[in-house]
Each structure stands twice: as structure tokens, then as C-alpha cells.
Amino acid sequence: MGVTEATPFRANVFDPNCPGRGVMEHVASRWGVLVLGVLLDGTLRFGEVRQAVGGVSEKMLAQTLQALERDGLVHREVRPVIPPHVDYSLTDLGRPIAEGVRGLYRLIEESTPSVLVAQATFDERRAAR
Amino acid sequence: MGVTEATPFRANVFDPNCPGRGVMEHVASRWGVLVLGVLLDGTLRFGEVRQAVGGVSEKMLAQTLQALERDGLVHREVRPVIPPHVDYSLTDLGRPIAEGVRGLYRLIEESTPSVLVAQATFDERRAAR
DNA sequence: CGGTATCCGTCACGATACTG
DNA sequence: CAGTATCGTGACGGATACCG
């Protein structure tokens, strides 16, 4: 088997027609990463999620939550009262992924100062041409 | 200060007007995650990256690589020969982030079977209405 | 070979209004 | 309160052509 056995990394995600790619695009979407990150804090209602994630519209939030629910990463619980009350939380499947996302946050925020310097340098060089 | 001191997580990424958010959107973009993942294997030429990432157009690849280069996550080295030869690799700043992305791949691929079941169940319930 | 420029379609997204 | 429906815009993204 040699190399085949270990398959060092080379995920199938790189294949356009692979189910994992779709999940990746839900998770790593503009709002997906933020929703998962927010839900890591615990169960939240629709409006609370909306408030916690800055700048998301109702429509996009509903859409994002549905995609994540369909993938089994987020649990949706409706309480039949008036006015309606809907709770969102991470599933056991979704939690590790959300934690991975949180790890990315951490790294990116730590890197932010360096990134800003890099951007400034880059833009400067461009202007100098 | 109690809770305030630790600031459990609650990254500034959730603020729409924050530099980290922009970086996050580059990294967690459709092609950004894939490019970073591919470069983790080592230095690659433009064409090699294009081949490794399934389904990306030249335009989007160039655009993605530029954004990551501007953020200081990817290093671009031009060798002035004919025909042109351009190498791309991760910077010290970019590598940890790329590794975080790889971690997400792993998690998502492990989850894929469960996700497919969840999707089937979800779609079934919808149809049953 | 590794881009950049241009054109153009599509769909992601936001704003608004409405329902249960 | 938590959505769904509809519509309009603009950015994203692909195809093509051309330059260094």
C-alpha cells in the first residue's frame, strides 16, 4: 500500500463533486463561520443570534441556519407558544467543527497586527510602480 | 472583574467594522480555504495550485492568491525566466492558519457520513409535509 | 507560463412587506 | 417573534482575448 495507506492529507474536499466540499462551503461561508462561533457560547434564540452576529440580515441568517441544520450541525427547537420561540444550539456533530472555527478566529486575531503591516507594505509597493 | 477578565471568547470578528473580519472572509472564502490547504503540502507553481484545487478558474485563483499575499499569509516568488515561473508558498504567518483550516477539513470529512444521513432525514421530513 | 483586461450572466445579498 | 415571499441591485465568478 505504501503511501496509499497513510494518505497524508490530500482530502477529497479538493474534488469539486464531493459531499464534503458542500459542507465546507456551508461552514466556511461568510455567515456560517460566524453563526457557528456564536452558538459555541450556548443555546440562543433567533433574535439573539441575529444580534450577536453583526450585520447579518434576517433572510441570510434564516438561510444559513437552515443549511447548518440540514447538515446536522445545528439543532433547532421550536417551542409552540405565542409569540413564537425558537432555540438554536450546536449538535454533537457540530460542536467539534465550531471549535475548529473558533481556533481559526483565535489564530486570525492574533495575526491581525502583522496582517495590517503586510497589507500596508503591499499597498505601498503597488503605489510605487 | 469576573467574567470580563477572561473574555471567554467573543472575538471582535463579530463586529462588521473590524480588520479581522476581512481576513476571516479571505481565509474562509470559497477558494481561500482550498488554496491554503493545498499550499500546506509545500511550494507550488501557479499552474500546480490550479490543478490541485479542483474547479477554480484562472481569474479567481489569481484573485485569491493576491488577497492572501496582501494579507501576508502567502509568499509569492517570481523567477525571471522565460517562460515565467512563479512559486507560491505559505509564510510563517500563514502556516498556522492553514493548519487550522486543515483541521477543519479533517473534522468535516470525518463527519461527512453523519452529515449525509442528517441531510436525508431533513429532506424526508420536508417532503412529508 | 502567468498573469491582466474586458465582457457578461447569475445568484448572493439586502430591503421591504407580509404571515402565523 | 420568527420566519417566508418578492423584488432589485451589485458583486462574484466564468469565458475569452491579449500582454510580458
Relevant terms:
homodimer; 129 residues; mainly alpha; Arc Repressor Mutant, subunit A; three-stranded antiparallel sheet; 58% helix; 11% strand; disordered N terminus; DNA-binding
Describe the structure.
Chains A, B: This is Redox-sensing transcriptional regulator QorR. Chains A, B: InterPro entries: HTH_HxlR, WH-like_DNA-bd_sf, WH_DNA-bd_sf. By secondary structure, the first copy, chain A, is mainly alpha-helical. Chain A has one domain: Arc Repressor Mutant, subunit A, CATH 1.10.10. Chain A has a three-stranded antiparallel β-sheet with strand order 1-3-2. In chain A, a hairpin with a 5-residue loop joins β2 and β3. In chain A, α3 crosses α6. The longest helix of chain A has 34 residues. The interface between A and B is large, with 55 and 57 residues. Chain A binds a DNA duplex (20 and 20 nucleotides) through α5.
Mean pLDDT, all residues of chain A: 88
- Shape category of chain A: globular
The structural domain count of chain A equals 1
DSSP strand content of chain A: 5-15%
Radius of gyration of chain A: 19 Å
Classify the helix fraction of chain A into a percent range.
Answer: 55-70%
Helix-and-strand structural type of chain A = mainly alpha
How would you spell out the order of helices and strands of chain A? HHHEHHEEH
Report the total helices of chain A.
6
> Main sheet of chain A: which strands, in order across?
1-3-2
Distance between the termini of chain A: 53 Å
Quaternary status: homodimer
Please outline the major beta sheet of chain A: 3 strands, antiparallel
* CATH level-four homologous superfamily name of chain A: Winged helix-like DNA-binding domain superfamily/Winged helix DNA-binding domain
